[in-house]
Amino acid sequence: MILGKVIGTVWATRKDEQTVGMTFQIVREVGLDLEDKANFVVAVDSVGAGVGEVVLVAQGSSGRQTELTKGKPVDAVIMAIVDRLDVDEDAVASLGE
Amino acid sequence: MILGKVIGTVWATRKDEQTVGMTFQIVREVGLDLEDKANFVVAVDSVGAGVGEVVLVAQGSSGRQTELTKGKPVDAVIMAIVDRLDVDEDAVASLGE
Amino acid sequence: MILGKVIGTVWATRKDEQTVGMTFQIVREVGLDLEDKANFVVAVDSVGAGVGEVVLVAQGSSGRQTELTKGKPVDAVIMAIVDRLDVDEDAVASLGE
Amino acid sequence: MILGKVIGTVWATRKDEQTVGMTFQIVREVGLDLEDKANFVVAVDSVGAGVGEVVLVAQGSSGRQTELTKGKPVDAVIMAIVDRLDVDEDAVASLGE
Amino acid sequence: MILGKVIGTVWATRKDEQTVGMTFQIVREVGLDLEDKANFVVAVDSVGAGVGEVVLVAQGSSGRQTELTKGKPVDAVIMAIVDRLDVDEDAVASLGE
To answer: Which of D2, D66, D86 sits opposite E8 (nearest CB)?
Structure first.
């Protein structure tokens, strides 16, 4: 999944009829420090995420595994709203051997 | 989905017979300010989008979930024509905790 | 789909037996002006494309939706030979509202 | 698969109910020298990987082929913890002919 | 498919049990001149490729279409060992019309 921040909404009335009722959120990709990255993606919201909230987005066919998106022509879904990130950037790489 | 603008059409007579009758639109990727990006994609049009219109494109297997593209060898579909973008680039990232 | 130009062929005798008889074409990605881009992809030819011809390539699971590639371990297929591109790079972005 | 190093965890309580009980690990992509790369991905842990461990991540629909992730809206899974890398960067490219 | 060169092996004992017995090869992406590129991918070997051999790698769900990888949580497979490349970089782009 990618980490992102909801920054807005796309409105469309002429669209595939299977997508009627879906909310298309604009998700700005962010780093682990929550700073903006250059990319954004438009994702269907399956969890009620609001502007500013940090979220996880599942893409590709995985974006169609929620109840809302199953079998629909959409390739990205917000499937989690993030509460907290525990990050240790200094973790030393360790191999099993 | 990616955000793009229709800028033209690809014409092909020698093609997989399952794609006969489809319109292959050239979609220039655009930013949230609707400025052109470097990339473009060729996508099947399932919603009647014309040149200049801002659209959403679903890619990969999701591009095959419209009535028109189901089971067909195409990996991108225009599935919505955009009416409006509500964007708040200044939204502060907020975590649930 | 991506737009490309056939520039050669990959020959392989030791390969997954499901791919015997397929032609693996080397497709250089091109821009809308048909100028070369840096990337290339190796794609199965399902339409009889020759060197120099401009083609469309479908990737991922969509690359397996032709009669030739169904269920086979290949992730890119040439599914159309391009006759003409109609491009209007100056098209002004227009929103539905 | 991509090679990465677990550097932390994403906590989320509001999420697709099919993902309850999954651990979302933050995986920093690494090179063959185990040095950090710029990218990271959030992946479900199916093998009990801890911070610092070097892992393989399968993405896309392949991320849904573990017992834990089958049919779930997740697009990346840690499916192996790496013991050792045998690398010969100086290997001379050899063609079959 | 991407073109690559086998440069090593990843060893892992703690892994998804469906992947037991698979060989995870490290494949350095190469150009048409067989020079190294910056990227590498870890791919399951389905054709007995050795270090130095030039190979084709199929990715995504296509990586799961070999007998060895069907239904398994792996997203890249070596499905051909390359004998020869016929490349004409100077081929002039020709449209059907």
So the answer is: D86
